[in-house]
Amino acid sequence: MSTAAAAPLYRLFHSPGACSLAPHIVLELLAETHGVSYEPVRVVIADGANRKPEYLAINPRGRVPALAFRDAGGTEQILTESTAILLFLAGRHPEAGLAPTDPVAAIRIVEFLSWLATTMHQTGVRTVFRPERFTTGTDKAAHEGIAEQGRITVRTGYAELEASLAGRRYALGETFSLVDAMLVVHYRWGNRCGIDMRHDYPRFAALVDRLRAIPAVARVIAREGIQVD
Ligand SMILES: N[C@@H](CCC(=O)N[C@@H](CS)C(=O)NCC(=O)O)C(=O)O
User: Fold this and answer.
1) For residue 82, how far is its CA from the centre of ligand 1 (angstroms)?
2) By CB atoms within 10 Å of each CB, which of 70, 88, 101, 113 scores lowest?
3) Can you give the residue ranges of every domain in the chain?
4) Which atom of ligand 1 is the closest one to the Cα of 15?
């Protein structure tokens, strides 16, 4: 008799503290509340694992997250882009209540996640962490100005977010949504951009404290081995 364990429903390729932390949190919540099985697969960017042929075979862009799953016909598919992965997981597991059916509530989530992934991540945080990606290799003198503009972009966004959190328990109101999972990532990145997030954005810090008090969120942070503050 075979003792092989059933393959998990999902494999999430992630790197500690990267934007893949958000789907990692959502998968852990789904595992806890609805028995969804998944395997987190570490692809540590700091070690260059995202540029190795094994990973490029999964995501030729060399980015995390990537999600492996089987479609209705049993064929394995790879999905990339954090926004797409989050919305896919919520839609595939509607019983978890992460995908509102009301069209306005649903599109507000897409709106927020799109802003985080584009303005805040790519034109904000990324220009601070990786200014060399926004100019030619020889133009080192430009790095400081690019990073400084990135800090202005993220500060403008965090100020907007801080104001919107007045009187709210979670990013979009009284209930946890996909956006909250991604905000843990952005709060942590803010600290790593040299911003004192707890001091400058106290409502954002309080939200992240509430999120970290959720056991599934705490478990993922511990598993990734990261500091949020
Ligand atoms: N738009 C993509 C961005 C993915 C992305 O840039 N991921 C980063 C980590 S947060 C990465 O893999 N970086 C590795 C690299 O740029 O070499 C998403 O939201 O999934």
Assistant:
1) 9
2) 101
3) 10-96, 103-214
4) 9
Tell me yes or no: is domain 10-96 CATH 3.40.30.10: yes
Nearest to 22, CA basis, from 227, 187, 206, 165: 187
Element (H, E) at 80: strand 76-80
Q: Among positive and negative, which fits the CA dihedral 131, 135, 137, 138? A: negative
Contact between residue 165 and residue 131 where contact means Cβ atoms under 8 Å apart: no
- Say how far residue 86 (Cα) sits from the centre of its chain: 9
Q: Is the pLDDT of residue 83 over 70?
A: yes
Nearest to 26, CA basis, from 10, 41, 44: 10
| CATH code given to domain 103-214 | 1.20.1050.10
pLDDT tens-digit readout, 132-152:
999 987 888 899 999 999 999
Atom of ligand 1 lying closest to residue 64 CA: 12
pLDDT at residue 2, as a whole number: 52
